[in-house]
Each structure stands twice: as C-alpha cells, then as structure tokens.
Amino acid sequence: AEASTSTSAAAPINPSIRKESDKVVDTVQVAELSKPLVAYCRCWRSETFPLCNGAHVKHNKETGDNVGPLLLKK
Ligand code: FES
Fold it and tell me: 12 preceded by cis ω (within 30°)?
C-alpha cells in the first residue's frame, strides 16, 4: 500500500534544465560579478538559468508558489 501524505508525492523540481546531468551545479567567482547586483534563479524555470529571467512570476501566479531569486551584490 502507498503511504498517504498531506502533500503531493515527491516530484522533480527541475522541469527541463540540463536533464542530461546527474546534478546541476554552477560555480560563481563572486569577486568577478559582472554587475553590482546579479539575480540567480531558484525556481528552475528560467530560460537563462542559472540567472533569473523573471519566469518565477508566471510560476508563482500559476501555482500559488512564492519562490524568487537569490540576489548577489558586489
Ligand atoms: Fe527562477 Fe526568477 S526565474 S527565480
């Protein structure tokens, strides 16, 4: 019998990014940030991943989620 849970069953959070990889990892040299403020995606829906492109807004609206980017300041 399947265990019942109050939330939906575990599912991948990453719908499409680098699925050929066992694990998606990005490394950033912070001292070399190109701009004073850079936003990194945490919703896994950005077409410019690992950078945020605002796709979280649509995701949040469609799902009721509340995710947003990680901001790095130089
Ligand atoms: Fe993913 Fe903004 S697009 S956090």
Answer: no
Centre of ligand 1 to C-alpha 6, Å, is 27
Nearest to 45 by CA among 58, 35, 32: 58
Pocket of ligand 1 from Cβ distances under 6 Å: 41-43, 45-46, 52-56, 67-69
- Whole-angstrom distance between the N-terminal and C-terminal Cα of the chain? 52
CA distance 13 to 52: 16
Q: What is the pLDDT of residue 6?
A: 58
- Complex ipTM value: 0.99
Nearest Cα neighbor of 28 from 18, 15, 38, 16 is 38
